[in-house]
Amino acid sequence: MKNRYRFAVMILCALATGSVMAQGQKAELRGAGSTFAAGAYTSWGFTYSKEKGVAVDYRATGSGDGIKQILARAVDFGATDYALSPEELKKNDLIQIPTLVSGIVPVINLSGVKAGQLKLTGPLLAAIFSHRIGNWNDREIQALNPGIKLPDIPIRCIVRSDESGTTAGFTDYLSKTDADWAVRFGTGLRVNWPQGVVPAKGNDGMATAVSETAGAIGYIAANQAAKKKLIYPLLQNRSKNYVAPSVETLLAAVKSSPVARDGEALNFVDMPASNAWPITDATYVLIERMPKNPARIAVALQFFYWSFLRGDAMASETGYVPLPTMVQARAVGKLSQVRDAQNLPLDFMSSTWNTSQVRAGDSPAISVVPSKLGG
Predict the structure, then answer these.
(1) Domain match, 55 and 142 both
(2) What is the C-alpha separation between 80 and 33, in angstroms, rounded?
């Protein structure tokens, strides 16, 4: 059944994306937000531009900024790792579509310690980031790692200074595994960190700060941790096993999660599978439900429709895990919730959309660029 569904989507998607260049003119789309998803969106946009002649600019400015930009209708789609509530979506007349899954990874800079050598738990991470534990040779960390001689140096906690979905996912995990953290700090795009933390802007800023700071610990998207060759610990999951971040452990978390329904946020954090990576998270795009310029948004919908068909392999190559097929099917179904001025479903599969309507003069237009900030 899954293969038959995928085949049907392939046929429909080919019909949809083939119409976007009806006039042979170049359309341009704009998106902004999460750097958690930037690698995949940039890869999708580059390939889509080559195949369909539609330039896609995704600017990685952070989840909070992605939300702000779509609320201001300054972009064609906003990207966030922090799902908006049904009430927020209704209030701001938006639809929310999950697109990908990745992991959030603690990363460290500790002389003599290799990737996957140190072991940590959720409560230990909470104790470190709340400054209850301040030294790397603390007896609690040492007791968990008897085979490693830990240095007597201060722990330097690096945190995101911008509104970040990565922060939201990381603090959600800390809240779920440590009751004291949940009460004192909670979770969100930005939290009230204790004094003494070192701020860093964006995933790139986090990677640089951790790499340049002896004794540092931070948190970053899994694909960025791998790309930057940062040192990560094994992390204890709900089944009390110590696991490394990988495609297999991310998939295990996804497969062990109850499948979310309709517009609900997907939750893959602290899943029960024996080999699940405990800080696995989804990312989303936000799109106007009743756009003032339906021609632009029709092209944006075609892009994401194509991405659900063609994007899985590209996402995997850049360190992400595709959504389960049925979650993708529901996401595709949500595209029909976008309406025109007459409150009719936007026919983004039609060949009637003339890409000359969505060229640069229509609104600020840009081309595919690498991520630079936030996530």
Answers:
(1) no
(2) 6
